Amino acid sequence: MTRNPPGELPPERARLASALRELKTATGLSLAALATKTTFSKSSWERYLNGKTLPPRRAVQELCRLAGEPEERCLALWELAESEWSGRAAAPRTVEDTDPEATARAGLSEAETGRRAGRGRLMAVLASVCALAAGGLSVALVLLAGQSGDSRPSPPPTSAPAPRCRGATCEGKSPMTMKCGVTPLTLASHRTASGAHLELRYSDTCEAGWARMWSTRIGDRLELNRAGGGHPHSAEITDGVAAQSYVFTPMTEARPGTTVRACFRPVRAGARECFEARVRFRPRP
Length: 285
Description:
It contains nine helices and nine strands.
């Protein structure tokens, strides 16, 4: 089995940890506040965000909920990291290839891996049966909650943090740092010829827009501008972890009626790809 150099995370876990840190930044919460709003402790979140420990699936879902982001991509990253962590993604290991201390810490002996897989299959069957039965949803939730190892009840939904800028004061600033990345609108989506995913995003509370990309390559570049003027902003993929994570451009002021435009410049030979969208008025509740 190929091992990573000391102190270096496996790429699957590094990508997941990077995505979770971006989500935490979007929530505007400290580790202590994150612990009070989820079913996981401050020390647990510290380990999850640094990649020291693989978080439970439920932790990823709760963080996505707090950040107002769809959970599908992070759960896909979690599946890859979990496969690496449990050893299911690796070829069968010999005794000489196994680090006894690491195996003991992670509980990854062959017997334990088999028990874990058996428990996972049992949980899936039970959840399916209970979901079909009267009152089954509550039972399924209890079963899933038991996997977290934390008996605290799920916290009620929380309000989004207040943004730190609005309109022109957001120009050139990070949507995550300025708390504009909570419950944004997706104005337009585009998939490039190279397979990269792009989105134009907008916050009506910040009156600012930005673009983001993922599934990219090192050296890919995304540029953002608004029609009728304004300083262009850009983001570039600088390493392998960023290539598998969300990477954002800085924001540009974008009030209702403004057209924002994003252009993708692939690192490999290929034409520049651009798409745009117009910000429309959204009535407030």
